[in-house]
Design a protein that fits this description.
With 64 residues, the chain is of the alpha+beta class. It has one domain (4-49). The protein has three helices and two strands. The protein has helices at residues 18-28, 33-47, 55-62; strands at 4-8, 11-15. The chain has a two-stranded antiparallel ribbon with strand order 1-2.
């Protein structure tokens, strides 16, 4: 991968070939095993029967 740095004012930019950019862009969109595990865990928690109770309902049940 050939990369060139360009400075415009106080900002630095990197120039790279389009094929390398598209490869990096494609890899950025991929999900890792950790991401897939996190998604599965959140779906499991959402599907569980243990639902949260609104504070107003808790107050009614406690007679507050």
């Amino acid at each position: 991968m050939t990369v060139q740095t360009v400075k415009l004012g106080r900002s630095e930019f990197v120039l790279l070939p389009k094929k390398d950019f598209t490869r990096l862009q494609r890899r950025a969109g991929e999900l890792t095993e950790q991401d897939l595990g996190d998604i599965a865990e959140s779906q499991r928690r959402l599907a569980s029967s243990e639902r949260s109770i609104p504070l107003s309902e808790v107050r009614k049940r406690l007679g507050l």
